Amino acid sequence: MLKTFRIGGVHPPENKLSAAKNIEIFPLPETVTIPLSQHIGAPATAVVAKGDKVKVGQLIAKAGGFVSANIHSSVSGTVTAVDAVPDGGGVRKPAITIKVEGDDWEESIDRSSALMKECSLTPAEIIAKIANAGIVGMGGATFPTQVKLSVPAGKKAEFLIINGVECEPYLTSDHRVMLERGEEVLVGVRILARALGVEKAYIGIENNKPDAIEHMRSLAVAYGDVEIVPLKVKYPQGGEKQLIAAVTGRQVSSGGLPIDVGAVVQNVSTALAVYEAVQKNKPLFERVVTVTGKALTNPGNFRVRMGTSLRALIDHCGGLPEDTGKIINGGPMMGRAVANIDSPVTKGTSGVLLMRAAEAKRNEPDVCIKCAKCVSACPMGLEPFMLSKLGKLGMFPEMESYHVTDCIECGSCSFTCPASLPLLDYIRLGKAEVMKIIRARKS
Amino acid sequence: MSGVILFTILTLCAIGVLAALILYFVAQKFKVYEDPRIDTVEGMLPGANCGGCGFPGCRGMADALVKNDDISALYCPVGGAPTMKSIADFLGKAAPEKEPQVAVVRCGGSCENRPRTNLFDGAPSCAVAASLYGGETGCTYGCLGLGDCVAACNFGAITINPETGLPEVDEEKCTACGACVKACPKMVIELRKKGPKGRRVYVSCVNKDKGAVSRKSCNVSCIACTKCVKVCPFEAITIENNLSYIDPAKCRLCRKCVAECPTGAIVAVNFPVRPVSAAETGTSVETH
Q1: Cβ-based interface (< 8 Å): residues of A facing B
Q2: Which of A339, A362, A392 has the CB atom closest to B133's CB atom?
Q3: pTM of the model
Q4: In CATH, what number does B36-91 get?
Q5: Shortest CB distance from A90 goes to which of B123, B127, B140?
Q6: Could you report the per-residue pLDDT of A282-322, keeping only the tens digit for each?
Q7: Which residue among A311, A430, B166, B233 is least crowded, i.e. fewest CB within 10 A of its CB?
Q8: Looking at the domain covering A1-25+113-361, what would its CATH class be?
Q9: Residue A345: half-sphere exposure toward Cβ, Cα within 13 Å
Q10: At B233, is the secondary structure helix, strand, or coil?
């Protein structure tokens, strides 16, 4: 029987429309807008000014703290502005705008496609290279990778788990990366394992991608102790704690971190970025993005430079369909609806999904009948109906005792609710308020 | 048989007397004295338990009023001056004075002035919307119109006007308890001096974007042009973060700034209509 996690979970329609589409290189845009905050943690500080000439891969913003990430130019050209620009939610955030002129790369970047298997750097050197390249978790959480690889004193990593689950419906970028760049991913996995000082690595892949499982299995034999673990399809298996439970059977306790059970989890796209950074000196300035939607003429997977506008992506795939109800940055479960179509692709953009008006429409909420479907669906073992109610009433201290901070905001509760209640909306609000209370208590 | 009954009754009586004695002495030993005036003062307060005074309810306020010698910092916004005066007289303390205040919604971004750029279909709560994104219009500072202030008001003083999509405060019902001020995630609502006959002049905008940006998203936004600062004879107006603010303590209600404001962001309310001057300057002088 296939492995999966034990608590909760749902199975939304998969709709992987672009699974068979090869990764295309997206044409260079005319301008790019690169936000200074593309990661969790402190925003980066710009090191270029208006009028500066930059090259592809040049550092344009430095990490603003320990939990932060460097940002590199994705194009060559002239900086036209370092100013606040509306993000996907319409809120103005600092960003660097660059007018594209040619495609002139930094000389240090190795642009050949030759596979470089050998890596003899020490763990500290690898982590430094990853930090310099500005790599963040590319599954969507955008947590700076070097921080995750720096195992705190007293803890020990036992194995590395690579997330090739891609449990979000519609998204196919990780799937395509495994199929087309499997060897590079595996070298990246070996480098990550080396940085952590572990031998064992698992790659978890859901069995709705049999071709990827087969392909990675055939390649993995040459890469030491790497085990491909096929998983039963269940959302949110790509969640860190769910993936650990699925692959190893270990449970991360409430409030704990994966390292507490000896695990470090990284995404396949992150592994690819690590390979490119360590072996090819290429910082993170482009990524694979799935552009998809049932009404879209030509969905596909593209290698896109950071800062390209969503509008350019949509136009390239046949233009914005007329009855579009929602544009989502990410997948339908955890992605965020976009209010500003000119917002850019960032390090965490795994996909752009266009939903038709009928699909996007939320049903009228009804009253909660305490059926507890949300309780069964919650992969963290929480009581979403209660948390949501408390959040609506503004009873935040009570929410803390109901462990709202364990919520991973996967949306399984809202998805499963027969009364169409906006459960997650209030839980997310309460979680943010509780985090504020906890921070205030600490300081 | 009767001996058993008698013994039982006597034993029970003895236990009863003993327990009563213990309870009596324990009650004497741990007696907590409570000023009877607290109950009286609580009765004199309106009993709204709104928290507008800063205490969790009227009981807490009554307790503080009785215990503190100086009650000048305590004020019940619901009962207002008459209540405070009668309580101060009862306690023999100096009555705290405070000018009556009213909640003011500082946003003029009606559907007409501030076109919608997207539709929010999440949980109908300003707090939820504000935690997710900038809002349904180009202005990320102004009123979201989902009615958290309406829900927070214990007195039914705020309603959303369906035509403008903005909350409106009923000045008669508003007690200036400040619940709406706390509920608003965008900090659009402010407690301001009610003013003589309810006359007030204020900047009905909270947008801190640069003028060109805020003007693009809303017709009646403050663009920080500084015209009002220059025209004010009483130095009551300051501009900070691209936003003008009129200090109610300094404003003498001359309304020169209202006439001067190029976008109509400065609003005068409850003034008698002056059709001639309003027509001349072309500004929107709101009258309620």
Answers
A1: 86, 88-92, 336-337, 339, 360-362, 392, 422, 425-426, 428-429, 432
A2: A339
A3: 0.86
A4: 1.10.15
A5: B140
A6: 999 999 999 999 999 999 999 999 999 999 999 999 999 99
A7: B233
A8: alpha beta
A9: 32
A10: coil
